[in-house]
Design a protein that fits this description.
Number of helices: 9
CATH class of the largest domain: Alpha Beta
Helix content: 25-40%
Distance between the termini: 69 Å
Number of domains: 2
Number of strands: 13
Largest sheet: 9 strands, mixed
Order of helices and strands: HEEEHEHEHEHEHEEEEHHHEE
Shape: globular
Strand content: 15-25%
CATH architecture of the largest domain: 3-Layer(aba) Sandwich
Structural class: alpha/beta
CATH superfamily of the largest domain: P-loop containing nucleotide triphosphate hydrolases
CATH topology of the largest domain: Rossmann fold
Radius of gyration: 21 Å
């Protein structure tokens, strides 16, 4: 028998022996054993969101009504530890919980994960932990690149391949926290290979201490996921500074008010509204013909579905019981 090289082909029977049901780390949000991205403009609330996820996965508690699978969580942080400590403490106080101290770990600095040495050091640090990670958050992507360029498709494809080595070794989910470009409507900053090579992607839009968390890619499941709306709430941490002032932190809490999307609709939403048709199939076909992006029809269909969902959520379009749609002129 030939010794395995670590790269193999399997039979169709072996393929069919795998479970068809998706194994969710966060139900309907993040699949287990996958690589994804959460991105948004600076200060929009994305770090608050991923820390709330980290806390709930560490304790196996629902993340805003979505069940989680409990496991060890690593946060590769690129900012000051004091700020992270205040945010995590705020989560504990707001949710009246004590985060499992054995399951949540924070890095003491950023590291060039794209380098041979950086990758080696991260794996060594993981091996020293008592429990291997269920999920790793990398906050932010740019702070963990030393040799790679965000705008290079080759560099980003190679970087995702490096992350895949970690994912395969530990069977964990890896989440990149990333920024938008100069224009928020253009999506995640940098090379298109980044989004093309991840399994899921969520955009965070925020202003005035409110933010919206919306799916724009889910490779192996339905990406028409209802957006979640949050407010960033200041929390008194119960301690005083050396000047006698209350020390505060902040965390995301559920909100019924979405960030206003009507004033600055993303271009895909504008396109969907411009070619509106009351019948779903005709509306989809019209979108494919109207959309000028140099992408496949399959990608255009995904764009259309996300745009349709957003238009319904923001009240621009109404969905009727017979499956037809109408534009809400009063919106």
């Amino acid at each position: 028998m030939t010794e395995s090289t670590g790269y193999n082909f399997i039979t169709l029977d072996q393929l069919y022996s795998q479970p068809l049901e998706i194994d969710w780390l966060i139900e309907d949000i993040m699949p287990s054993n996958s690589i994804g991205m959460v991105y948004g403009a600076s200060g929009c609330g994305k770090s608050h969101i991923i820390l709330s996820m980290a806390a709930m996965v560490a304790n196996g508690l629902p993340w805003f009504d979505n069940d989680t699978k409990q496991g060890s969580v690593l946060v590769m942080a690129g900012e000051g530890l004091a700020g992270i400590a205040r945010r995590i403490k705020a989560i504990e106080i707001e949710n009246n919980l004590t985060i499992d101290r054995a399951k949540l770990h924070i890095s003491d600095r950023a590291i060039g994960l794209d380098t041979i040495e950086g990758h080696k050091l991260v794996e060594q640090a993981i091996e020293e932990l008592k429990e291997k990670p269920q999920i790793i958050f990398i906050d932010t992507l740019s702070r963990h690149l030393d040799e790679s360029q965000e705008n290079s498709n080759d560099d980003m494809a190679r970087f995702i391949n490096k992350l895949d080595l970690i994912r395969l070794k530990y069977k964990c989910t890896i989440v990149l926290v990333h920024h938008t470009g100069k224009s928020e409507n253009q999506g995640a900053r940098g090379a298109s290979a980044l989004k093309a090579n991840v399994d899921f992607s969520f955009k965070v839009s925020g202003e005035n201490k409110k933010c919206t968390f919306a799916c724009d890619k889910m490779k192996d499941a339905d990406d028409a996921i209802s957006a979640k709306c949050f407010a960033i709430k200041g929390i008194n941490l119960g301690e005083l500074s050396s000047k006698g002032k209350p020390i505060t932190g902040a965390c995301v809490v559920k909100s019924n008010t979405a960030v206003s999307l009507k004033a600055s609709l993303p271009s895909n939403d504008e396109t969907a509204l411009a070619c509106f048709h009351p019948a779903k199939k005709e509306w989809q076909n019209a979108y494919i013909k109207t959309c000028t992006s140099p992408i496949s029809d399959e990608s255009k269909i995904s764009q259309y579905r996300r745009a349709r969902t957003k238009l319904i959520e923001t009240g621009q379009v109404e969905e009727h019981s017979d499956g037809s749609y109408s534009i809400n002129e009063a919106a």
